[in-house]
Design a protein that fits this description.
4 helices, globular, ACT-like_dom_sf
Length: 131
């Protein structure tokens, strides 16, 4: 199944949804295998350490420090990994509302992590693309 490439079609047809739960971005030492039991939503290996996106409760139970709580907004349109401009358009829209955007692209969808207290405002801003 091929994703949508055209930016205008992507923006008009996406239907952003806030997913349940709150997430924390954590950085830890060690190997991913040491943290699989925490069921991270996503991981990334950086030079400075392993980044985990964890459910806030899992991070707290494991005593892993984090700085903020985030909600996940999924852009439910199947965007192509070769689409140009989606991240820039989403980021610019949220910037206009003073909302930071932490974007994670997966195979089918893009996921935007925003501060929990700004999630409703971010969703409303992203829904403006369909208007």
């Amino acid at each position: 199944m091929t994703g949508i490439v055209e930016i205008e079609e992507l923006l008009k047809s996406m239907s952003p949804e806030i997913r349940g739960g709150e997430y924390a971005f954590c950085t830890v030492e060690g190997e991913l295998a040491d943290y699989v039991h925490l069921n991270p939503l996503a991981t990334y290996i950086e030079a400075e350490g392993l980044t985990l996106i964890l459910d806030v409760e899992a991070a707290e139970k494991a005593n892993i420090p984090f700085e903020g709580k985030y909600k996940q907004i999924t852009l439910t349109v199947h965007s192509s990994l070769e689409a140009v401009g989606l991240t820039a358009a989403v980021s610019a829209k949220l910037t206009a509302y003073n909302i930071s955007a932490n974007v994670v692209a997966a195979y089918y969808h893009d996921h935007i992590f925003v501060q929990s207290d700004k999630a409703d405002a971010a969703l409303a801003a992203l829904q403006e693309f369909a208007e």
